[in-house]
Design a protein that fits this description.
48% helix, mainly alpha, three-stranded antiparallel beta sheet, elongated, 8 strands
């Protein structure tokens, strides 16, 4: 049978130091919490009696509220007992919350739990981070009718001024909150007509410059004399393989298995690594990429003549890690990505490249080399596996300055117009 206990949630303290009063609903399967919508300072709460101390100016009213909600809970337990039904914590929470304004944070709970079940760990972490940021700013509970354009504006200002976030980061946070609000609308927990996002403009901020390498710089990296089987040698292989395979992302290079390398034959009938076929970790779309001769040479260096298990990784980045859960896989990838980026900076220095090199620049570089080689935007879209042509246009927009410079030189440079 479920039990109901008033508690002070000191882990949800607001900026003024006040903590919310909740009912803790527990049964044999777990614990749920229901906010009473009131807060007090920790010293104003009597832990033993689980009531507000007399020193609080509204102690009598607050304790009356607690007693009333306890009575409602016990009445619901008795009603279910008469009906020979077990009173679960979930049932009690639903019954007691019917007359309360829906809480935004509580409304997101089921959605976050669903993301966790689906293994969408990266998105789950990002949403939890922005929800924590909003909760520390606005306090909890946060009824939907408190989420107004004014609150969103104040939250945006708080992130920019108090937290020192960049406008682009704040824009991402606000888009995530809008998505969570819209999800609550779909579940019938909020009214779309009252959405504050209908009249709130999310400012994008300055578009970050997309760093990329020229093909000559790619060749300079490939020409470096690095000792075989050292970490820096492996890192160069990872980066060049991504570039020569249409700019595939780090997460896909790191988790690429031997079974994803589909064999073919050359003109003499000898077996060759022909294609990569895999499901992209970000988009979840199946990709098929032809393995070009430079990429094949990298595979030969990485694998030699050995025949490995189809489930074994092509590259040894994640070997030895515990990858038993999506969260552990994400953590391992993040750790290796940071290490690879550290060594890419050493590679750039050795090759005389001034660009602050990171793994994702392989993707930028492929897109720019393809564009300057005369590829159509549709071909680049397909190679990058973008969802639409607009996404590719946005992606290439950061490279427009170099293209315009070249056109201006053609038109007005020393070797340009002669008339």
């Amino acid at each position: 049978m479920a039990t109901v206990t008033p508690v002070l949630r000191t882990d949800k303290r607001d900026k003024r130091g006040r903590c919310p009063i909740w009912l803790r609903l527990s049964d044999r399967d777990g614990t749920r919490y229901l906010s009473l919508g009131e807060k007090v300072l920790p010293f104003q709460w009597n832990k033993k009696k689980r009531r507000v101390r007399k020193g609080h100016p509204d102690a009598d009213l607050l304790n009356e509220l607690i007693a009333a909600r306890l009575t409602e809970a016990r009445a619901e337990i008795l009603r279910l007992k008469i009906a020979r039904t077990y009173a679960t914590a979930d049932h009690l929470k639903d019954a007691l919350a019917e007359d309360q304004a829906a809480d935004f944070f509580e409304a997101t709970r089921a959605h976050l739990a669903d993301l966790e079940k689906r293994g969408q760990v990266a998105r789950l972490r990002r949403l939890r981070a922005v929800l924590g940021k909003l909760e520390r700013f606005a306090g909890s509970p946060l009824p939907f009718d408190r989420i107004t354009t004014a609150l969103l504006t104040d939250f945006e200002t708080h992130c920019l001024t108090e937290l020192g976030n960049k406008q682009s980061s704040v824009a991402t946070n606000l888009r995530d909150l809008r998505a969570l609000y819209n999800h609550a609308v779909k579940r019938g927990l909020a009214d779309e007509a009252n959405s504050p996002f209908r009249h709130f403009t999310i400012k994008k901020g300055a578009r970050p410059e997309r760093a990329k390498l020229s093909y000559a710089e790619i060749q300079a990296i490939e020409a470096l004399d690095l000792e075989a089987e050292t970490l820096i040698w492996h890192v160069r292989n990872y980066f060049l393989f991504a570039f020569y395979c249409a700019g595939i992302r780090f997460s896909d290079v790191a988790t690429m298995t031997q079974g994803r390398v589909i064999g073919g034959t050359d003109e003499a009938g000898n077996p060759t690594a022909d294609r990569l076929q895999f499901r992209a970790s970000k988009t979840k779309k199946v990709q098929s990429v032809k393995i070009t001769p430079p990429a094949r040479r990298i595979l030969d260096r990485a694998d030699g003549d050995a025949k490995r298990d189809p489930e074994a990784f092509v590259f040894p980045m994640l070997d030895g890690y515990d990858l038993s859960t999506p969260a552990k896989l994400l953590s391992a990838r993040g750790s290796q990505n940071a290490l690879v980026n550290k060594y890419l900076k050493k590679i750039a220095e050795a090759a005389g490249i001034e660009t602050a090199l990171s793994f994702h620049i392989a993707r930028h570089s492929f897109a720019d080399v393809a564009r300057t080689s005369g590829w159509s935007i549709y071909d680049i879209k397909n190679a990058l596996q973008h969802g639409g042509i607009e996404e590719t246009e946005r992606y290439l927009k950061g490279f427009d300055a170099d293209a315009l410079d070249a056109r201006m030189d053609d038109l007005f440079g020393e070797d340009g117009r002669s008339d």
